[in-house]
Amino acid sequence: MNLGRRLLLVALTLLPAPLLAEETLRLGVFAYRPEAVMEARYRPLAEYLGERLPDHRVALEVMSLDEIEEAISHRRLDLLMTNPSHYLEIRSRNSLTGALATVINAQHGQPVSSLGGTMIKAAGNAAIQELDDLAGRRIAMPGRRFLGGYQTHALELMDADIDPRRDITPVIAGSHDAVVAAVLAGEAEVGFIRTGILERLIAEGELAPGQLEVIHAQQLASFPFAVSTRLYPEWPLVVMPQVAPETVRRIAVALFTLEPEHPAARAAMIAGFAPPQDYLPVENLARRLRLPPFEAVPDFTWHDIWQRYAGFLLGLAAAGALVAVLLLMLARRNRQLRQQRARLSLLAGVFTHSHEGVMITSPDGELLEVNDAFSQITGYARNEAVGRNASLLGAGRHPQAFYADFWQQLQRTGHWDGEVWNRRKNGEIYPQRLTISAVTDGAEEVQRYVGLLSDITRLKEHQRALTHAAQHDALTGLPNRTLLADRLRVAMAQVDRGGQRLAVVFIDLDGFKAINDTHGHHMGDRLLVALAERMQGELRASDTLARLGGDEFVAVLQDLASDEEGERVLERLLAATAAPVEIAGCPLQVSASLGVAYYDAAAGGDEDQLLRHADQAMYRAKEAGKQCYRVHRKTQESVSMPAAASRLGRMGR
Amino acid sequence: MHRRDLLKILTALAAAPLCLAGCSPGGPLTIGLHPWPGYEPLYLARAFGWLSDEVVLREGGNAGASLAGLCRGELDGAALTLDEVLVARSEGIPLTVVAVCDDSVGADMVLARPGIASPRGLACRRIAVERTAVGNLVLSQFLAAAGLRRDDLQVVDLAPNEQLDAWRAGEIEAAITYEPTASRLLREGAVSLYDSSQFPDVILDVLAVRQDRLRWRRGAVSALVAGHFRGLDHLRISPQDAMRRIGAWRGLGFDEVRASYAGLELPGPGGNRDYFGPQGDLARAARLLNDVMVANGQLPRPDDLKALSTPRYLPDIGAVA
Fold first, then answer.
1. What is the structure's pLDDT at A101?
2. Best A113, A229, A231, A304 residue to mutate vs chain B (most B CBs within 10 Å)
3. What value of ipTM does the predicted structure carry?
4. Could you tell me the fold of the domain covering A21-110+236-289?
5. What pLDDT is attached to residue B22?
6. If I label B49, which of A394, B149, B263, B306 is the partner at 20 to 30 A Cα–Cα?
7. Distances in Å between the alpha carbon of A402 and those of A273, A417, A419, B105, B276?
8. Distance from B231 to chain A by nearest Cα, in Å?
């Protein structure tokens, strides 16, 4: 190596030295105690660092929290010592290189790198014994941004269910010394200070031992200070990002090699610096207290809710599901009920509005329910009928055997129907159609009888009308051939049993066809009716007048005492038919030819034969000039048989 | 009327789950506990009020007290070593492991008076051994490693909480012990000859509960396990605070407490899961214990290992920060 190059090297190494010596590193320290105290404590440390860093000078600046933030944002600080929660707050807003070291505190030679809070009260204040007694008290604190002076205390209060924002009355003193003064002066009942202050004040002679007492004292091993809260890492020493890495390394070396006996450490009352602790506990504290940077309400996700309230939510869901299922069941049941009600009302409508009477009875016949038609038919209102026995309806017209049969069939087949005579409430007896059915349960035991009853009085009348119509002539109302044959048979039987004479008179009107032709069938029919009435009027009650059809009538004369009596009747009939009849203002006149046959019981013969004989006799009367009568004689029977046979053929049934 | 009654019953039924979420009709879960670094998280949880009201901790002097409590039926579960769980099971107490508190990786030690430099120096000396499986297990492992026989030593039956007085009285020259006695003996000048780091994953301290007492109390078991992990979390994140509290309870300094955890692995919820399952360390340790304990006559017959453990009460990973 030649001399020239060696000189150049020397010159290069010497050249920057005066320039670098001008550089100043500014160390900011948070003034948690009065500024003068802080200045006195930390100036030796700043000087120590300046000594250990070649070409650097370290300037100490004791600042409030706000001043620190202001200085950092303007890059006016290079090194910082502040409380851990403030450090986290700054870190969240500025890019820091992170904590370089954690302060090791010292007390009576015992190193501690943790801090906590001390709750103090005036000695002898018996009203405050434990945490719970702090609610509602006036509490002095240096400020809410002090970790050891408020935040550590606040967490303990929260754990004791005291809201540190609402449940206490804060007295903001500004510094720990002022808090102690406030408690001593009685301005506050309780004071919140950080650990070490109490012991330091006593050491400095500012406070006599026993003047203050500690609340909620914690039992901790190897911790030289009275403490009321859990512990957190001590203050960090933070390096700002603008400091050169080489300088940072040298600062670290200087910090970690600072011995407790060094004057700088003694002045600062520390035992040196340790590698940075984990500040997670402080972060967790800030989260719990919602301190910056965690003042925002954290996102509360469904997962969080589930984590916390899983049991409750499950219960709620189960309850909800149960209610839903019940509602569903209720809705279904309601629908069924609605359908059943509709069906019932339909059935009830049939029951109520039926024209058939309906009665429901117990197995022993007690009336349980009846409908309106029942009341109309029987005359018994519902309230009169229900509770009474169905036998109240009976008319007593049927023999005991009828009822015995009735019960027997009902019990055997569960059913009975038929016609019975019953008595209405007003005493009227009427025919009734009755259908009774047994209602049984699952075990075939009879539970009820249901009876359907209808009044068949009118039906009976109708039947009678039909029977009457079948046996009488529609125009004159006189018996027709059928009834005539019946009556004749009866009369003949009476004669056979020893009765008196019986005559059959065949009546045929003379000149009736001319009336029909001249005046019309209408007038003819009215004439027939009038003549029928007249002839009926000439007969006795025991006699029968029948119309065979057209202008032919037959009279059956019973109980004739003699032939003369018969002849008198015949004369009356001739006169009655021959008399003029005025119909609709028109005088009409016909006559009649009569043929008479007497029944001879000894000779026998049937009613057809007797009529035939009368018919033959009538023909003879016609031949004799009409408007007269002829009596049948036995010898004449064979005469004009063909005509008679043809007439009687019409009478055949 | 009928419908109204039905509605009342149904309303009560509907409200029942809400009640179940908040109460356990079976009464609180009583757990036997004794001082041991691995169990300190539960003590921490109790001190900070993190244990649910459904869990009651019954504190005893040593594991024997917990076992006796289980036998008398006073306890629903206990913090025990795995071998103690096997002993209890052999006596008909249907314990099942719900969490692993710690794994001894050096916490169980053989301590001797200063001057006794090697295991062979213990020959014919009095050594305090707790008559438990762990004591025997450590002794047998120690003897095997040192090439000694049981007869070479004078074995004195002394539980760790009695060993300090015996040590001070000069009644013993060595002890098979664990924390917190180990730290106290070390403070008295004892030196360590051997420890469980030579045979890890065998001495496990666990939380075990009686399966037959779990009706309506599964929430309480989960609360117990969650309390343990919350305490463990505090111990991990704030050791400066937690260990000072433990130190105050046990009469130890902060550094001694910290030292007592040097030989212990305390698995969190995530690490715990690795111990469970048929191939987990629990089953493996139990099989090894079966062999050692049957050979030593501490178990009449090997445990069938059925329902020995369940991970169902462990919190979800991520739920505990």
1. 94
2. A231
3. 0.78
4. D-Maltodextrin-Binding Protein; domain 2 (3.40.190)
5. 45
6. B263
7. 127, 13, 11, 111, 94
8. 13
